[in-house]
Design a protein that fits this description.
Elements (H helix, E strand, L loop, with lengths): L2 H33 L36 E10 L7 H9 L4 E4 H13 L3 E7 L7 E3 L6 H4 L13 E3 L1
Length: 165
C-alpha cells in the first residue's frame, strides 16, 4: 500500500467519524422535546407539536413534562422586605419580577427570587400559573423551593425570559 493510499484511508475514516458525530449530535438535540427538556432550535417547526403544562400533543409518542422550565407565570407581583431603595441590582430584579402584562419563565423567576433572597430580602410573591388560573400567593418565596431554587442543570440565558401576554 502506498503512502497516499494510507493517507486517503485515514482521511476517509476521519471524515466518516465526523459525519457520524454530527448526525448523533443533531439527533440528540432533536430528541430533547420528546424528553420534555427544550424545544427551541429543535426541528419541530412544521410538526404542529404543541406543549401544555402536562405534556404535548404528539400523535404517536405523547410525552409528559419532566420539568416546568418551559412554562411561565402571569400576573406576577413581588413585595420585598426591606423594600429596595434607589437604584441597584435588587431594584432592577424587583422591577423585572413585577412587570405587567408579561409571562415570566418559571426558571428565570427562580433565579431572580434566589438572587434577591441571597441579598437579604424577604420576597412575597403573587402569581398565576396560567391566565385562567387562580391567583396564588407565597408569603415567603425564599422558603419555597419551587419558587426560589433554580435547577442546577439548566443554563440560564439572558433572552426569552419573558414575553408579552
Amino acid at each position: 500500500m502506498s503512502f497516499s493510499e494510507a493517507r486517503r484511508r485515514r482521511l476517509t475514516r476521519r471524515l466518516q467519524a465526523f459525519v457520524a458525530l454530527l448526525a448523533i449530535t443533531l439527533s440528540a438535540n432533536n430528541l430533547l422535546p420528546y424528553l420534555g427538556l427544550r424545544d427551541d432550535s429543535c426541528q419541530t417547526m412544521f410538526s404542529s407539536l404543541h406543549w401544555s403544562d402536562e405534556g404535548n400533543n404528539h400523535l404517536y409518542m405523547p410525552q409528559h413534562m419532566v420539568s416546568d422550565i418551559w412554562s411561565g407565570y402571569v400576573d406576577v407581583s413581588a413585595t420585598l422586605d426591606p423594600p429596595p431603595e434607589g437604584y441597584g441590582r435588587v431594584k432592577d430584579l424587583h422591577d423585572w419580577l413585577s412587570q405587567e402584562n408579561r409571562v415570566l419563565n418559571t426558571e428565570a423567576v427562580r433565579v431572580v427570587v434566589r438572587q434577591i433572597c441571597d441579598r437579604g430580602h424577604a420576597v412575597a410573591l403573587r402569581y398565576r400559573r396560567s391566565p385562567e388560573g387562580p391567583l396564588e400567593e407565597a408569603a415567603n418565596a425564599c422558603g419555597e423551593p419551587t419558587l426560589s431554587e433554580p435547577h442546577w442543570w439548566v443554563p440560564i440565558r439572558l433572552y426569552e425570559t419573558d414575553y408579552a401576554r
